[in-house]
Amino acid sequence: MENNSNNQNQANTPLQNNIGDDEIDLRELFTAIWQGKWIIIAVTTLFAVASVFYAINQPNIYKSEALLAPAEQDKAGGLGALSGQFGGLASLAGVNLGSGGGIDKTQMALEVLKSRKFTSEFIQKHNILPDLMAVKSWESEKNTIIYNQEVYNKAENKWLRKVKSPFKPKPSMQEAFKVFSQVVNADVSKESGMVSISIEHLSPYIAKQWVDWLVVDLNKTMKERDVVEANKSTEFLMNQLENTKIADIRAVLYKLVEEQAKIIMFANVRDEYVFKTIDPALVPEVKFKPKRAVICVIGVLLGMMLSLMVVLLKHFSKKHSDK
Fold it and tell me: How does the entry describe its membrane topology (predicted)?
């Protein structure tokens, strides 16, 4: 029995030694860090200096924002009411009044804002391609834009980009759309339903101007779409009136013509057709980004973590090689 006990103890001894070898000794860990303190200090300092240099050289970006309220839309009345009253009669004349559910013009306007067609027309209408694609910096004292001379020559209004085919020196609308999508932002509050449209740019004055233009152009675009649609509907309904002799159906058609006339009237008298400005865009006085302090802190932390990993890996690799 005694021999068996000794043999079992001897068998367990290597296992215990292996477990002890695999466990990390905190004292050894701190000793390794202390021995490699100069590496940690050097690498952390290097990352700190690099992050400060990077943060300082990042240009200030300003953000201008407008708060908008959706204009009231007649969703329940109008064609919706007529659909419930005269839908059957109208169908006899081949006129579809729809379900009367209405269209969320606010959501439609935001989708128009994100569309390539609207963005391309906006850029060309206001001639903002150089301010979008070639700005290098902004001088606050003179309120002037400095363009990248390798990209755009303002004096000659000439694009100088060196690009490979199929791209050309002058950026295409597809390129401009991608850049513009990164600087414009539109959010809808789930609680209040309010809409905020913002622009980020090197120049606070340009950011404010673009927001103002966007609000005006969105309202104008949505107004023109509804007026065109109402005019086409009126023309169709008048043709139906000429071909219909049934009094009840003619009454329905006259009501429909009246509704289209209301749409055209409201569109012509309301400049804020889809969005009403609650809080207009302002020229921001304080930059929106970059957060230079955050960049520096992240740089220091990255340098510290990297140097710690290097010191510990070096220590344990040397320890295992000595064995």
Answer: Multi-pass membrane protein
